Amino acid sequence: MKYIGSKPSHITKGDVLDDLGFxxxxxxxxxxxxxxxxxxxxxxxxxxxxxxxxxxLLDEYQPSVSNLxxxxxxxxxxEKLLSYADRLKMKTTLMVRVSSAASRPISQSxxxxxxxxxxxxxxQIRLRRRATIG
Length: 134
Hints:
single chain; 434 Repressor (Amino-terminal Domain)
């Protein structure tokens, strides 16, 4: 029997978070959280901690530790992840590079040209999510 695969309906040419409708700042925050969460989970696995040990080490409740272990990134703040990394004796660094887009002129209102207001952007994200879910 010959396998007939489904054709992709969309091919990402850049960042998948951009295609999902996240703003550049939201995408950056998610990437940073994901990178930090991945490093924390690797450290926990490498040291062989149990959830019970992590409850005491991280000074957290068991449901919070469970969310961490399961990788539920939406339930974890960046500050909380940094706190966990500190308690695990990990060093964190953040590198920020200036892109060519940052050197564009700023209008008198203070907003960069072509960047939609936050409320409009969030509405567009919700509409895109509904379209992909439904």
